[in-house]
Design goal:
Helix content is 43%, strand content 13%. It has 547 residues and is α/β, with parallel strands linked by helices. Helix 8 (166-181) packs parallel to helix 10, helix 9 runs antiparallel to helix 10 (217-244) and helix 15 packs parallel to helix 16 (422-440). Bound molecules: 2-acetamido-2-deoxy-beta-D-glucopyranose (5 copies). One 2-acetamido-2-deoxy-beta-D-glucopyranose (NAG) binds at residues 403, 405, 444, 446. Its EC number is 3.2.1.21, 3.2.1.46.
């Protein structure tokens, strides 16, 4: 069906496309030979074994057990894809994908059940050690995230990231994992998506610990998180890096805020302000020339705090000069996770708007929406396909922070199931093409980690949204994994360092057997049906550029 659409589109567009300047014709574009290809996962989303051996309780165990009604399908990660037992198969899949790197995270309470160093789990230490060895055996570089949202519940009872006590405790945990694994792990990230940790965890009722306390604790969380991150990086640099020879950074996240009306100065300003609030909150202190929070954040939150009766003390805490210097420069690369874009316009200081006062969103003063866009959808309401947003985001980081080395540490798309995920194939082709565009325009992107290796526990969406290159049969005792069409296409991309737009394999025998067994409901909405005219047209234009 879609091939027909493409052909029609191509015919009708060929003349117009031929006049597009600046793109090399006929030659296939290649990623650099040393480009880091990877695939990602996170501990709570895939491991299961929630109380295996002496593992402690995490804030996600606690949330999903106490408040299952907060999860779309009332599910939890107790077993999930059971990678606690199936990790050898996971490594086999990573090999099949021809990637050079596997990005996974460590579960803090699996390693330190109570969060503190007085209790260390031998079984937990061994689990990751085995995984790392298995990866290295096949020349796959482990890329390890120290914190991907699994705070030990005991530490949450002390206020979690809002309590400065977290700084030395996180450092103790990090020291242990560096001592245990640093000889073998050469790429580290301290914390995954600080914005999600702080705003979604503390500001609204979205991620554990679900504080739903807008406008204050998220900024305390961010403050402590930045300091904890910086202390760990300094520790790594002072005590480990020279001997172990690895690199350590952080991974931030954002959707790209596209100005609703590109001709409106207000909308363009709203886009810039959104970037400073989402990325600059953590990016400016670490990556900018002068450090500290972005000026616009400091000023707006100070002004609004005053208006709101908080007196002279801003809800956004202040760093001392010493702290500003301590945090600045503490990342060896810029890790960025991004999936989609929003249209944005200004909400100014309009206090009758739709956000609580005070709140992060009200402080930011930006209205975001995907209403009225003709971007193709996905299996998640928030995720629409707009590859240009990835280009814009990479170029913004490149300009804003003086050309840092960038690793796209997460990018991918969801659907509702099935193995014939041609919409995912299109997504990867389109987004990787946008990454190449940004690289050609100067962005120093050194790697790309696809999200995700396999279907997993998608936080509050439970098991209803699938991001995997591999399908997981959550009803089979050993959580059987099967490559989707996208796994074969992504593998081909990694192997050849290039995008082959014409490569769209059909189900092979192994896949046909599994596909036949899938319950009908897990196939819908049919991924192929998400491909509609707008995407076909877009594809056709891109194809025409390269033909
Ligand atoms: C904050 O208030 C000061 C003084 O009223 C004003 O000059 C400045 O423009 C305001 N800044 C922002 C970002 O609103
Ligand atoms: C403020 O927001 C409300 C609700 O969205 C809207 O009705 C009103 O017109 C806005 N006022 C201004 C001055 O923008
Ligand atoms: C297909 O494109 C239309 C706009 O052309 C958009 O509104 C719609 O959401 C898309 N459909 C799907 C399933 O993505
Ligand atoms: C890109 O980053 C790498 C790693 O830091 C560095 O070696 C290289 O010189 C950078 N390239 C450019 C063009 O800045
Ligand atoms: C997993 O389960 C399937 C179906 O029950 C079985 O065919 C397969 O041998 C099992 N694999 C392992 C490694 O136990």
């Amino acid at each position: 069906m879609w091939q027909v659409l493409i052909k029609i589109s191509l015919l009708s567009l060929c003349c117009a496309a031929a006049t597009v300047p600046g793109k090399p014709s006929s030659s296939v574009r290649h990623f650099p030979n040393d480009f880091l290809w990877g695939v990602g996962s996170s501990s709570y989303q895939i491991e299961g074994g929630w109380n295996a051996d002496d593992k402690g309780e995490s804030i996600w165990d606690y949330l999903t057990h106490q408040n299952p009604e907060k999860i779309v399908d009332q599910s939890n990660g107790d077993i999930s894809a059971d990678s606690y037992h199936q990790w050898r198969r996971d490594v086999q899949m990573v090999r099949e994908l021809h990637v050079t790197s596997y990005r996974f995270s460590l579960s803090w309470p699996r390693i330190m059940p109570g969060g503190y160093m007085n209790q260390v789990s031998t079984a937990g230490i061994k689990y990751y050690s085995n995984l790392i060895d298995e990866l290295l055996r096949y020349n796959i570089t482990p890329m390890v995230t120290i914190y991907h949202w699994e705070l030990p519940q005991r530490l949450q009872e002390l206020g979690g990231w809002t309590n400065p006590e977290i700084i030395p405790v996180f450092q103790d945990y990090a020291r242990l994992v560096l001592e245990m694994y640093g000889d073998r792990v050469k790429i580290w990230t301290t914390i995954n998506e600080p914005w999600h940790v702080c705003e979604h965890g503390y500001g609204v009722d979205y991620m554990a610990p679900s504080y739903n306390f807008p406008g204050i604790p998220a900024y305390l969380c961010g403050h402590n998180l930045l300091k904890a991150h910086a202390e760990v990086v300094h520790m790594y640099r002072n005590e480990f890096q020279q001997r172990q020879g690895g690199r350590m950074g952080i991974t931030l996240d954002t959707s790209w805020p596209e100005p609703r009306d590109p001709d409106s100065a207000e909308d363009r300003e709203a886009s810039e302000r959104a970037m400073q609030f989402y990325v600059g909150w953590f990016g400016h202190p670490i990556f900018s020339k002068h450090g500290n929070y972005p000026k616009v954040m400091i000023e707006r939150i100070r002004n609004l705090s005053k208006q709101q009766g908080f007196g002279a003390r801003s809800r956004l805490p202040e760093f001392t000069m010493e702290e500003i210097h301590r945090i600045k420069g503490t990342s060896d690369f810029f890790g960025i996770n991004s999936y989609t874009s929003n249209l944005v316009n200004s909400n100014g200081h309009n206090n009758t708007g739709k956000f609580p006062i005070p709140s992060f969103n009200h402080d930011m003063g930006v209205v975001e929406s995907q209403a009225g866009v003709d971007w193709p959808g996905s299996g998640s309401v928030w995720l629409k396909v707009y590859p240009k947003g990835m280009y814009n985001l990479l170029m913004w980081i490149h300009r804003e922070y003086n050309g840092p080395e960038i690793i796209v540490t997460e990018n991918g798309v969801s659907d509702r199931g099935g193995l014939e995920d041609y919409a995912r194939v299109d997504y990867y082709n389109l987004y990787l093409s946008a990454v190449l565009d940004a690289m050609e325009d100067g962005a120093n992107v050194s790697g790309y980690i696809a999200w995700s290796l396999m279907d997993s526990y998608e936080w509050k969406a439970g098991y209803t949204e699938k991001f995997g290159l591999y399908h997981v049969d959550f009803n089979s005792p050993n959580r059987t994994r099967t490559p989707k069409i996208s796994a074969r296409v992504f593998s081909n991309i990694c192997k050849t360092n290039s995008i082959d737009w014409s490569y769209r394999p059909t189900l092979n025998d192994e896949q046909l057997v599994v596909a036949a067994r899938l319950p009908a409901e897990s196939m819908e909405p049919n991924s192929a049906s998400t491909l509609n005219w707008s995407l076909s047209l877009f594809l056709a234009i891109l194809l025409a550029w390269h033909c």
